[in-house]
Amino acid sequence: QVQLVESGGGLVQPGGSLRLSCAASGTFFSINAMGWYRQAPGKQRDVVATITDGGSTNYANSVKGRFTISRDNAKNTVFLQMNSLKPEDTAVYYCNAGVHVRASHYQYAWGQGTQVTVSS
Length: 120
Known about the structure:
This protein is mostly beta strands. It has strands spanning 2-7, 10-12, 18-26, 30-39, 46-51, 57-59, 67-72, 77-82, 91-102, 105-110, 114-118. A hairpin with a 4-residue loop joins strand 7 and strand 8 (77-82).
């Protein structure tokens, strides 16, 4: 099984920056893709950015040029650097990972979420 723990959220002014981290722990063979999702009150959970085990990235159009996703495979950790933050970025941010728990079993894991608030 795998556990994901996010950190780094907080309150920031518009135009500011935050860096989120998500560390995976537990018993598993490998982690494939990892990603960041966000959910605002009353809204559905939407993808923000994803990164494969090989380092290929994809971003939601709303964050392209402002956010950067990266990972440290040795530490089983994924990061989200958020620059030029806007009030509409306010949401709970969740980490997600596709995990090979064993050779014949693949599952998705979610973190508990970390609050990001962008406000003056």
